[in-house]
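Long-time lurker. I teach an intro course on protein structure, and each term I like to show students one example going from raw sequence to a predicted 3D structure in token notation. This year I'd like something fresh instead of my usual example. Would anyone be willing to generate the tokens for the chain below so I can use it in lecture? Attribution to the forum is fine with me.
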Amino acid sequence: MAKVKPPCRPNCPRRCPGCHNPENCPDWKTYLQRKSAFDSTMAAVRAERDMMHDYGATRYQNLKGRIQDA
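-- Reply from a regular --
Happy to contribute to a lecture. Here you go:
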């Protein structure tokens, strides 16, 4: 999943104070919805990655202990 880019750039013709308000700018509202979905997906990916890392680290420690006890 590609990272979501904001619709407003420094050279945006509609750029003005308060333009990053979802009520004023429909593009910004869409961006916030997509960013929220992206953030929740990435949080799930990071949680799974961390779980697999912890599993591997625990498994390695258990294996290391069995080799030293032998």
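Some talking points for your students: The chain has one helix and no strands. Residues 19 and 25 are 6 Å apart (CA to CA).
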